[in-house]
Amino acid sequence: MPRILTILGSGETSPTMVTPHQRTFARLGSDVRAVLLDSPYGFQENADELTEKAQQYFRESVGREVEAVTFRKAPAPDTTAHAVEMVRLRAADWVFAGPGSPSYALRTWAGSAVPEALHARLREGGAVTFASAAALTLGALTIPVYEVYKVGEDPYWLEGLDVVGAATGLDVAVVPHWNNAEGGTHDTRFCWQGERRLVMLEDQLRDGAFVLGVDEHTGLVMDLDSGACEVVGRGTVVVRVHGDEWVVPTGETISIEQIAEHGRGSGAATPEPRPTPDPTIHWPDGEIDAALEQGDVATAASVVLDALQDDAMPDEGRRWVRSRLAKVIAAIGEPVDVTDTVRPLVDLILSLRAQARAEKRWAESDTIRDGLAAAGIEVRDTPAGVEWEVRR
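Above: the chain sequence. Below: its structure as C-alpha cells.
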C-alpha cells in the first residue's frame, strides 16, 4: 500500500477537494478502512453535527464510507472505551482530521496513542489527510491560533506532532489558511496571524526550520515512496524562509528534496524580501486606511495602484503592495448585487493583474485573482479576454 501524506489549507469537505480525495482512495484500493478523528473540534457543542456532515460529504461526494474515531477529551489511561477507539485508529488505512483548535487537539493527543498511530500509518503504508487546524499540528512547531488571534497572547510556537518531519525529514511549521482574507481591513493571511505576527514567529524559529504555507482550498499531496509532491486545488503552496518565498502553483509537481532545498534558503524561485521601514520611501498606509474607513474603496485601490506604478518603488515594496491590495479587495465583498458599483474598482484591479501577468509575476497575479474570489468576484480568463461577475 502506498504512503501518502496530504496537507490541506482548508476546503477539506468542499467540491474542490472531491477529486484529490478520490485519487487518494483509488491508490489505496477498494478495501480501505477509513476513519475521521474528531479531536480538533471535540470541545465544540456541535461536534456531532460536524462529524455527521463530514461523513455525509465523503459518502455522497467522494463515494467512501468513513467511520468516526471519537476522542474529544484526554481520558484516563485505563479508559476501556478510549482503548477501543485507539485500536480502530491504528487499524485504519486512511486517517482524516480537520477543523477546530490545534492547541486543543495537541493537548488531547498528548501522551496518547495518536502520534504513534499517525507515524506508523505513514511508515507502514496508508494515508493521512489533515486539514486546517489538524494540518497545523503536522509540523515540528504549531501556531496556537486562537490564543494569539482571539485572546491576544504574544505570538509563540507550540511543539507539534512532527509527522511531516518523521515522514520526510523536513523541519517545518505547517501554516494552512495561508491566503486568508477574512479580516477585511486588517491582515489575516497566514492563518489569521498577518505579516507582523508571522515575522515575529519566524524570528523564533530554530536554525534550519522553515514555514510551509498552504492556501485555502488548496492541498499538498506528498507521495512518500517516490518523493513527488503535487499541489492541488485553487491556490499555491509556499516555502518561506524569513520572508523569502518559493511559491508553487496548483497543478505543479515538485519533490521533497526541492522543498528541503528551498527550505534551506538556497535559491528560492520567487523570492520576495520582507519589507523593512525606509524613511526615504512614502508608504501611504494612512491614505488607504482613511479611504476604507469612509467606504471609498475606489480611492484606496487607486492609492495602491499608484504605489505599484511608482518607478521609485523598490523590490521590497512588492510585498507591501500585495498586503494592502488584500485589504482593498476584502472591502468590496457585499452580499448584494453591486456589479455596477464595483465595476470601476474591479476593472482597476484587473488592470493591475494584467500588468503583473505581462511581467510574469505569476504569484502576484494569483493573489489578485484569489483575493477577488474571496470577495465574491469570479474572474475567468477566456480566449476573448478576461470576464468577471459578482457571485454573491
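Residues 339-358 form the longest helix (20 residues).
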